[in-house]
Amino acid sequence: MNITTADRDIECILYTEEEIKKRVSELGEELYDLYKDSVPVMACVLKGASVFYADLVRAYKGHMLFDFIGVSSYGSGTTSSGRINFKKDFDNDIKGKDVIIVEDIVDTGLTLKYLKELLKTREVKSVQTIALLNKYECHTEDLDTDMYGFRIENRFVVGYGLDYAGYYRNLPYIGVLKKEVYS
Ligand code: PRP
Questions:
Q1: From the alpha carbon of 72, which atom of ligand 1 is closest?
Q2: What distance in Å separates the CA atoms of residue 33 and residue 106, rounded to the nearest whole number?
Q3: Would residue 144 show up in a list of annotated catalytic residues for this protein?
Q4: CB neighbours of 159 closer than 8 A, spacing ≥ 6?
Q5: Please, what is the Cα angle at 53 between 73 and 32, to 5 degrees?
């Protein structure tokens, strides 16, 4: 492997490109089993979920509609600010539709809870959430993540869309960031 500048800041790799690809392909098939009689709106939560989303939609065999919603709560730190900044709404009219919210990670669960509450006001037919990573030890919100790719412990991870201060999203794997980078 060619060691890049970004790779040098990684303590260890949690999931390789190959492991992610295999799991995303399984998730695409599971989703298709649930929605083959429908045309769901799959909503990517910008920006972190964008890489996962791009692979997931290509692992999904049925008709679906693209959508992108913008929310953020982390700013440039490693912990949630506790406040959701709503930046971009759905493009589709989602009333009466099956909506799948696609997240990269559920950490405190605040973002997902916020989005589920928002969708309650939109008269959708159903809501499903799917997150690649579930940081199960960190949830402060009472929530159900309907589907997820991997359960991970409480470590600060980057890559495959996940960032620290905007960096590392382009790493093709998911890795633990060295503490010295952010402390
Ligand atoms: C991250 C991540 C999730 C959210 C999860 O987004 O992409 O949307 O935080 O954390 P929570 O469960 O504690 O709410 P972030 O605010 O960093 O924005 P980004 O996706 O643009 O990086």
A1: 16
A2: 23
A3: no
A4: 10, 168, 169, 171, 172, 173, 174, 175
A5: 125
Angstrom CA distances, 91 to 3, 95, 114, stand at 39, 12, 18
Query: How far apart are the CA of 37 and the centre of ligand 1, in A?
Result: 31
Indicate the pTM of the whole model.
Answer: 0.94
How far apart CA 170 and CA 38 sit, in angstroms, is 33
Fill in the DSSP letter of residue 143.
Answer: -
CA–centroid distance, residue 18 to ligand 1 (Å): 24
Dihedral-angle region of residue 175 (phi above 0 means left; psi in -120 to 50 means alpha; beta otherwise): beta
Ligand 1 lining (C-beta closer than 6 Å): 45-48, 72-74, 80, 103-111, 163
Output DSSP code: residue 4.
P
Pocket residue to mutate for ligand 1, from 46, 111, 134, most atoms within 8 A of Cβ: 111
Report the C-alpha gap between 98 and 15 in whole angstroms: 30
pLDDT, one tens digit for every residue, the chain (183 residues):
566 778 999 999 999 999 999 999 999 999 999 999 999 999 999 999 999 999 999 999 999 999 999 998 877 777 777 889 999 999 999 999 999 999 999 999 999 999 999 999 999 999 999 999 999 888 877 776 689 999 999 999 999 999 999 999 999 999 999 999 988
Quick one: 113 exposed, middle or buried, by C-beta within 10 A (0-12, 13-18, 19+)? middle
